[in-house]
Specification:
This protein has about 325 residues and is mainly alpha-helical. About 75% of the residues lie in helices and about 0% in strands.
């Protein structure tokens, strides 16, 4: 396959997934902001959304303060923000148009109709009237796009690059979400100490526990709902929501569709299908990252600090994306 074609397919899927992830994060923050809480807690929640996408400096350059209305406008329809939902859907459609001949009619029409419809909805004020309904629509269009892709595309390299882009983006976003939500405790999360845990770890957990008391059932369930994980958590653990189990579900469970482990499984599987060199450094890098998730334990991750672990994971995912670009996609300008 031509690297240019692979590049468009890869980024078409990444942008569609990014639009869905942004809608998920905004929806959970919008719903959480309606709960009784202090103004400082509300502002911290919206600031976390900007931090997840590394957009806080860009936002503050345009707005004087962090308010729900302005953050949602910036993240939904600001065309100067490359990660806004509108910008992502436009980029997905433009990448699809560039490889129109490679896509099935159903895939192209889904992308094109999504772009036309989002412009109509924003022009008519549908987003302002009911933000929750708008976010559900974005999620539905992303689900439709993936379903049509898997259901109509030939199972060849085109599909493999599209799937690779989807799950690489998903791994990146889930890691950012978990990191920001747990790090919002103002203390790295170290999990519950065992009887043999060092005294320093116990004292750190004690501090974390006091901060966690502010996060009641609704806040933890909101985090799970943002990744469609609430019902999954109940089915897997059959217990009250505990932060360390939320972390385990979203990081290590291979059967949780939006977990880091499940995402890396898909990345490695599709990377193997397009890689002609079994000794490829890119494939080895992805395989090592997946193996650490497959054989990792949540207590070991928490013992060293969740924030430190996720920061390193994000760095390695970014390196993996750069390696994929160099080996398969269009070379990036220096």
């Amino acid at each position: 396959m031509l690297s240019r074609t692979a590049d468009h397919l890869f980024w078409m899927s990444r942008y569609m997934e990014r639009a869905e992830n942004t809608a998920r994060m905004l929806n959970v923050s919008y719903e959480t902001s309606l709960l009784p809480q202090t103004a400082a807690a509300v502002e911290a929640g919206w600031e976390g959304i900007l931090s997840i996408s590394e957009l806080l400096p860009s936002y503050l350059a345009l707005y004087k303060s962090i308010t729900p209305r302005e953050v949602m406008a910036f993240m939904v329809k600001d065309q100067s923000n490359p990660s806004s939902i509108l910008s992502c859907l436009r980029a997905a459609r433009e990448n699809a148009r560039a490889v129109r001949g490679t896509l099935t009619t159903e895939v192209w029409e889904t992308q094109n109709q999504t772009w036309l419809e989002v412009n109509r909805m924003l022009k008519n004020g549908d987003f302002e009237r009911d933000p929750g309904q708008f976010f559900e629509w974005v999620k539905f269009r992303s689900h439709l796009s993936r379903g049509v892709t898997v259901g109509t595309m030939l199972m060849d390299e085109s599909l493999y690059f599209m799937r690779m882009g989807t799950f690489l983006e998903r791994a990146d976003n889930t890691a950012r979400l978990v990191d920001v939500k747990f790090h919002a405790m103002q203390n790295d999360f170290f999990g519950a100490p065992t009887a043999t845990a060092p005294t320093a770890l116990q004292s750190q957990f004690s501090g974390a526990t006091e901060a966690m008391q502010e996060y009641d059932f609704y806040h933890w369930s909101a985090i799970l709902r943002s990744v469609s994980g609430f019902e999954v958590y109940r089915k897997v653990y059959r217990d009250v929501i505990r932060p360390e189990r939320v972390a385990e579900l979203l990081i290590l469970r291979p059967d949780m569709p939006r977990s880091l482990h499940a995402s890396l499984n898909e990345v490695v599987a599709n990377l193997s299908l397009v890689s002609h060199d079994r000794d490829s450094d890119t494939l080895r890098h992805a395989g090592r990252l997946r193996a650490e998730l497959a054989f990792g334990r949540i207590d070991e991750i928490l013992a060293t600090g969740l924030h430190a672990y996720l920061t390193q994971f994000l760095e390695r995912v970014n390196v993996l994306g750069a390696r994929i670009s160099r080996e398969f996609l269009m070379p990036q300008p220096a």
